[in-house]
Amino acid sequence: MASLKRSNTGKHKRRCDNCGKVGVIEKRVTRIYGRGRNALVIENVPILVCPYCGASYLEAKTLHEIERIKLHRKSFAKQKPMDVAIFALQAGVAM
Predict the structure, then answer these.
(1) pLDDT digits (tens, 9 = 90+) for 5-17
(2) Which CATH number do you get for residue 47?
């Protein structure tokens, strides 16, 4: 987990555990756990991201909540239709 550092304004800034630079930010993402009919989509998951090295972290409290949601998925999940696409490069497309 990113460590905290107090700035001149009194607010805590997070230091990246990977590169050591201060400035780790929180973002919200959608994560998919499982596959096929057993897939569980969890929206609005908070992650910490370092804008310098690109490292991303999940805090322990977030991991615990994800496990709780997965364990009790019937009470948390809502059924929604979901489009699924399969990635495939077309012949002749340069990368």
Answers:
(1) 544 444 568 999 9
(2) 3.10.20
